[in-house]
User: Fold Pyrroline-5-carboxylate reductase catalytic N-terminal domain-containing protein from Stigmatella erecta.
Amino acid sequence: MRIAVFGTGEVGSAVAAKLKTLGHHVVFGSRHPGDPRDGIPVLSHEDAALHGDWIFNALHGEHALETLAALPMEGKLLIDTGNRQSAIDGPLTETLGEALQRALPNTRVVKAMNFPSAQLMGAPEKLGATHSIFVAANDAGARAEVIALLESFGWKDILDLGDLTACRAMEQLAPMWIRLHEKFGHVYFNLAVVRRPEQM
Ligand SMILES: NC(=O)c1ccc[n+]([C@@H]2O[C@H](COP(=O)([O-])OP(=O)(O)OC[C@H]3O[C@@H](n4cnc5c(N)ncnc54)[C@H](OP(=O)(O)O)[C@@H]3O)[C@@H](O)[C@H]2O)c1
Assistant:
């Protein structure tokens, strides 16, 4: 699949590397196009948007909306991993996932992977236990496609939370991640939604 990963930070680098090992045609979209990073081309935002049938938003949470809304995204599937600083500073008034979908009505926005650390996104086995990941999108078909991608990443407990109003729960987890990070002093933790085996 042709995939453009926007952002060359921790999340973008981890996700792009995983996609490359899985055989996808992956490029970065960056403010600083130039030499490839770990064999992955680094294109301008515009060129990356043209390349990707799928787009990963791994941009800084405060700059994702203005950046992506200005690009040709029509007909594409956009996986949004972002968190807004406002979710950390206080109650979130508007989620990034819903704002992206409003700004890009002809793009299928899927919220996923905004809680686990970048180090676990493409390597969930590093925890040595089953842990959960959430997916939300208004388009059920898009949710199914992203769930299949997450399965290829190695995720086992993928919880389909329905439409993008679920972002109000998912993105409000950001301050919890920050607190846990402060407590543990490392990034190797995640949530697991424990339930009775007969009611999975
Ligand atoms: N780090 C994690 O473990 C983690 C886990 C879950 C979710 N998230 C979320 O994932 C997103 C990415 O996080 P991150 O830690 O990888 O990196 P980040 O520090 O939030 O920045 C990611 C990238 O955004 C681009 N960027 C920065 N400022 C920008 C601006 N003014 N305009 C346009 N683009 C700009 C940069 O890419 P270029 O220099 O290439 O343009 C940068 O590398 C965030 O929303 C974060 O909350 C992070």
User: Anything to note?
Assistant: Residues 7-12, 30-32, 58-61, 63, 67, 81-83, 114, 117-118 surround NAP (CB under 6 Å). The mean pLDDT is 97.
